[in-house]
Amino acid sequence: xxxxxxxxxxxxxxxxxxxxxxxxxxxxxxxxxxxxxxxxxxxxxxxxxxxxxxxxxxxxxxxxxxxxxxxxxxxxxxxxxxxxxxxxxxxxxxxxxxxxxxxxxxxxxxxxxxxxxxxxxxxxxxxxxxxxxxxxxxxxxxxxxxxxxxxxxxxxxxxxxxxxxxxxxxxxxxxxxxxxxxxxxxxxxxxxxxxxxxxxxxxxxxxxxxxxxxxxxxxxxxxxxxxxxxxxxxxxxxxxxxxxxxxxxxxxxxxxxxxxxx
Length: 262
Hints:
By secondary structure, the protein is α+β, with helices and mostly antiparallel strands. Helices cover 20% and strands 20% of the residues.
């Protein structure tokens, strides 16, 4: 009986394709959505270091002084966090895995830092329109190079030009859109007007339409100054007027659009 079953299986296998491939003679075809290995387009890289900070496996090393970008292939877990976080979109993921080897694969790329050109990221400077700035500090929090200093009490916004990687992360995060990456502009005109801003702010208040609010807490989570208190069980929504900088970050995250500054 067993012999008959074995013969039946052998007979069927004669008319089926093999379950395995003659690797590496026959290469496997990967699907497009397969996560394989990270590619770097070095022409666009500015060595900001965001990819290294977002990597959960610490597989990426960025050395701005040496001008190198390094990835430990066998340490990478192909999660794609670095690809999604890259502000210059110079990282990509192909569907080919790193070939197994006896030694750990470490790839290092030399990034040409263009300092003398009249155009391009290297010559651009980060500027702030202090007339519109509310000194919320979000730009400093997201800066991967710790190049920004923001003091709300003293109305100070400063950038370390040597440390700034010109990645644009702060520009994208600014709720007032008062940051820009371009030619440096004179700050003397904007500085005096920054002192007049608190008086104008005092006339505005953050309001919530409690009839529409669902107390989800997203506004409080996204407030850079921790000025909001939301308690879903007790149906409580409160704002600390002294701490609130009227930056509008909570307005953008509110799913019910029940917040307003007026």
